[in-house]
Amino acid sequence: xxxxxxxxxxxxxxxxLLLSARSAVAITRNYEFNIQLQNVTRLCxxxxxxxxxxxxxxxxxxxxxxxxxxxxxxxxxxxxxxxHWHGIRQLRSGWADGPAYVTQCPIQTGQSYVYNYTVIGQRxxxxxxxxxxxLRATVYxxxxxxxxxxxxxxxxxxYKEVPIIFGEWFNTDPEAIIAQATQTGGGPNVSDAxxxxxxxxxxxxxxxxxxxxxxxxxxxxxxxxLINAALNDELFFSIANHTLTVVEADAIYVKPxxxxxxxxxxxxxxxxLLNTKSKHPGANFLMSAxxxxxxxxxxxxxxxxxxxxxxxxxxxxxxxxxxxKPTLPSLNDTSFVTRFSNRLRSLASxxxxxxxPQKIDTHLFFTVGLGTSPCEKNKTCQGPNGTRFAASINNxxxxxxxxxxxQSHYSGQSNGVYSPYFPSNPLHWFNYTGTPPNNTFVSNxxxxxxxxxxxxxxxxxxxxxxxxxxxxxLHLHGFNFFVVGQGFGNYDPVNDPKNFNLVDPIERxxxxxxxxxxxxxxxxxxxxxxxxxxxxxxxxxxxxxxxxWLVLDGKLPNQKLLPxxxxxxxx
Length: 571
Known about the structure:
Blueprint: H1 2-24, E1 28-42, E2 45-52, E3 61-64, E4 68-75, E5 83-86, E6 112-118, E7 124-130, E8 140-146, E9 160-169, H2 174-184, E10 193-196, E11 213-216, E12 221-228, E13 234-239, E14 244-249, E15 252-259, E16 261-264, E17 269-275, E18 284-292, E19 304-310, E20 323-324, H3 334-343, E21 362-373, E22 388-393, E23 396-398, H4 405-410, E24 443-445, E25 448-451, E26 455-463, E27 472-476, E28 481-488, E29 507-508, E30 510-513, E31 517-525, E32 529-535, H5 538-543, E33 546-551
Parallel strand pairs: 1-4, 3-8, 9-12, 11-19, 18-20, 21-26, 23-24, 25-33
Antiparallel strand pairs: 1-2, 4-6, 5-7, 7-8, 9-10, 12-17, 13-16, 13-18, 14-15, 14-17, 18-19, 21-22, 26-31, 27-30, 27-32, 28-29, 28-31, 32-33
């Protein structure tokens, strides 16, 4: 009998071990995205907008590191659509990356496509958004990757986690706004409000009922997952009378530091810990965001606000409590932005190392900035001095092809679609941040920078003063990169590299090229495919501030791009 009990006990233990092992194994998660029109009202304006599943913002995707995601997108609307999973590395799965005419043709009306990818070696806060025209104004949502089961955060476990996604609201259709700007060559109309989780808040007309409220308990730690999904604006963020601890940026753990205020460019995410006060403070607190502005153009000079409320209020009616407001930096406070950026450092621990490329194969220098294009004959344009607004990298303003670049490359039919000769330096040197040249015209082309597999790259991106210096948040698809240095004025290739941080630089997927300055990044081209790189200010992308990298296959089977899926959309 004793032997039977011992055997039974061992069977139970083995079964429990197998079950726990299985629960730690990655799973496949299925999501359905229905692209559909939905009437939404904000600021007393109702408009029909493109949404996912009728929701604004769209649904939250949650997965664990190692999970496979199968997201079926069906287009019930009249606009072509594609979805980008912003910050996901897409190792060998470039067909699922999403930028229209780069890795896929868009999904047409009545068609569907399954985005199929595995989350490898990543955990943290990312987001998804439409990647065609200006549809990401309404088509976006959080993408939250939890650590593997039983793997803790490298900081105290929070009591609760709350995503807060920043957006922009337009009273008119953003597609009509960019269509008009494209036609006239002028600057597009700006948004009418900023939003937290789709809500503009009490500082806007007719919006007190549309206010994001964060209800908290005293003496608890909350993890706020902050995402800037705004179309065209970098945003300062602060909560009155509360200090925030930054613990992650772009889904990379950082050395924790405290701050009252953050800056997030479009495309960037930041996780912060909010430690609530030990007992009810007898007050409510505004959380606010407003733009950081460096350019010359018009902008939405307004402020979104939400309310931090403590539960179990000593007063039955919360509205009678005093309301504290945060103090945000001035609109053009570049010195704050610089100080904040310099505080971000990778954790660089044994568990989460910073594998900065030390030996560089390819040194590249890209100018990024605005410019102009000549107006068509017998037409009046509304850009500078009667020209059209344009933007470029190394003076090449990217021309979007009418077929997908990745398919053209994979099928060996790239002739007439793109040139593999993107310039590795500007063709003409000038004083980039000084007096601009008289000729501000850009060249146009569909050019790719070709990299052999496993090339280690150092790229310096230099802002220019053509049409005025401006901060440009550059986003690289398919990779994270290390931000090894940044500064103001013209980059000095002799002296500036002496100050590079090659030990614990921040690793991210989107970085602001400083206004009137430069930033140096390093990355390893270990992901075969065609990868878009562009300014995440949508207006600049529309004007051509974008390019693409072609990373060739490696020699080994696991270094090659996988074949395209059978349901890949056709152009």
